[in-house]
Specification:
It contains 24 helices and 8 strands. The protein is mainly alpha-helical and 536 residues long. Helix 9 runs antiparallel to helix 21, helix 13 packs antiparallel against helix 14 and helix 14 runs antiparallel to helix 15.
Length: 536
């Protein structure tokens, strides 16, 4: 009888138990903390040389209360997933996404007749372009939690193109992760780390841009190579059985579509147009400008909302004349546009993003002519379908709770930072990279880890005559890559839950990729200590 691999929930519980055992083996300790203004916001940072041992707090029966606390700690992401799931379920009921995918695939088939595109492969071009876009999002504004919403769109697209859910996850989540690791202007990692290290904000831009290009295209090459194998024989996919869920959903949606446009869809158009016009002006009839900050000195003030308000009626009337399905796709397109504007121009986080998608779901239902009860029923069905993904995020949050309550996180940081003496520049930056990578497994939050580690790492780099910029880059790589594999990452667990990919199968697939990325990261670190680079 073939032995079954443990369920994802079981694996996470085992890790929680392991974390509890660590609290019995590692002495308790704590750094003193103080507030510091970083890029206009107050951050809590560690005080150098302030570590002191404390009475340990070994965890035992607390592994059960940690589950509850994990749900509380990850409540934002959990609710975000449920709202996204409910909203997209309403949209899926309209068959709009199916219409969009069908139209997209028909368009790509036409392109295949072009000889020069045949050589490159139309699907290869599509995967490459999508990954570049999401990598830019990760590099510029640190896209992370937002990727969960796109999984519901790109996994079905990948299945329709003849690939698997792993390719779909790579197109959005991994691509954003590559950008996050090779960050150029990410304010949540580079911005905070450089601020704490007293470096000019987003300095070293030139080499970081080169790094981003190398990491992104290495990742694209890896994914394209895997996608080619799956396209040739889909049964070779490690998640072939799990993808039956998406294939069945696709077959169900392949029924003949009824194209129509009703009065309520025109009403939704007029309502949204009125809202956009209202928000296009401020202080009377003065146009509203949105400031998009890129880097330290580049601030673009653009009338984005008025421009999009002006384009909306053109797109809406054109799509409504074809079918309500295409109008709902216009709503999806505008939702994505305003997500980008909101994050980059108004510093939106998951609360407002969830509200944006929730509104999209309700308006999609109204445009279809559904009653309030029907919309509510569909939302609940969507939340139920995605519940397992939301639950596993809360369970994973219990791992960090155990380590925090056990008072061992600061102790681990203290011990590893003490092991870097006498290594030379290359050795020191390599050890820093390894330490940041290890710490990221238990503290996946980039901003939190920057606040915890940079106050210790930055002054230490001065003692060994190592550039603080190199120290920040070691943090950047150590923070970025393992976000795609660590079970303590609520975003990763949420993404896998939505995509229906078991954690153990994802680990098996991505481990060789992670090892290759970590080696590439180490190679890209060497020029920061061996060469004279701008900003370093």
């Amino acid at each position: 009888m073939k032995k079954k691999f443990p369920h994802t929930y079981v694996i996470i519980f085992y890790i929680i138990v392991l974390a509890a055992i660590i609290t019995w083996l590692v002495p308790g300790g704590e750094f003193e903390r103080t507030g510091k203004i970083v890029n206009g916001a107050e951050k809590t940072i560690l005080v150098k040389d302030s570590f002191h041992f404390e009475k340990s707090k070994p965890q035992s029966w607390q592994i059960f209360t940690a589950l509850f606390k994990g749900f509380v700690k990850q409540a934002g992401i959990i609710i975000f997933i449920l709202m996204i799931g409910g909203a997209f379920w309403i949209m899926n009921a309209s068959k709009a996404i199916d219409v969009g995918i069908l139209s997209f695939l028909n368009f790509t088939k036409k392109l295949e007749h072009q000889k020069w595109l045949q050589k490159l492969g139309v699907n290869n071009i599509i995967i490459t372009l999508i990954m570049i876009v999401f990598s830019i999002f990760g590099a510029v504004f640190g896209m992370s939690e937002e990727t969960i919403a796109f999984i519901i769109i790109l996994v079905p697209l990948a299945i329709s193109m003849g690939y698997d859910s792993i390719v779909g996850v790579n197109m959005v989540f991994v691509a954003a992760g590559l950008g996050f690791a090779g960050a150029v202007l990410n304010p949540f990692t580079i911005g905070i780390a450089q601020g704490i290290a007293d470096l000019p904000l987003f300095s070293g831009f030139e080499y970081r841009s080169f790094v981003w290009v190398v990491i992104t295209f290495f990742g694209i090459f890896w994914v394209l190579r895997y996608a080619k194998k799956i396209k040739k024989d889909p049964s070779k996919s490690p998640v072939y059985q799990e993808d039956e869920y998406w294939r069945k959903k696709q077959n169900t949606n392949d029924e003949k579509l009824n194209y129509y446009t009703n009065k309520t869809s025109w009403g939704v158009f007029l309502f949204i147009q009125a809202v956009l016009l209202i928000y296009s002006f401020e202080n009377g009839f003065e146009l509203r400008f949105t400031t998009i900050s890129i880097g330290e000195s580049l601030n673009l003030s653009l009338p984005l909302i008025p421009v999009f308000a002006g384009v909306f009626p053109v797109l809406s009337i054109f799509t409504l004349r074809k079918s309500v399905h295409f109008f709902i796709l216009t709503l999806l397109f505008y939702t994505i546009i305003f997500l980008i504007v909101g994050v980059m121009g108004y510093q939106w986080y998951i609360t407002k993003i969830a509200g944006l998608f929730f509104a999209m779901g309700i308006l999609s239902g109204v445009a279809m002519g559904l009653s309030a009860n029907d919309i509510t029923k569909l939302f609940l069905e969507g939340a139920k379908d995605i519940m397992s993904a939301a639950l596993v995020v809360g369970l994973a949050g219990g791992i960090l709770i155990i380590l925090e309550d056990g008072k061992v996180i600061d102790s681990i940081l203290y011990y590893v930072s003490n092991g870097m003496g006498g290594m030379g520049k290359t050795g020191t930056v390599s050890i820093m990279y390894a330490i940041q990578t290890a710490i990221n497994v238990i503290i996946p939050s980039g901003s939190a880890k920057a606040a915890l580690t940079m106050p210790v790492m930055a002054p230490f780099s001065d003692l060994v005559n190592l550039s603080r910029q190199a120290t920040v880059m070691a943090f950047q790589f150590g923070d970025g890559f393992t976000n795609m594999i660590t079970p303590t990452s609520g975003v990763l667990i949420g993404v896998l839950g939505v995509a229906k990919i078991p954690y153990q199968k994802w680990v098996k697939w991505i481990t060789p990729f992670m090892i290759s990325l970590m080696i590439l990261g180490w190679i890209l670190l060497l020029p920061t200590v061996l060469m004279k680079l701008p900003g370093f």
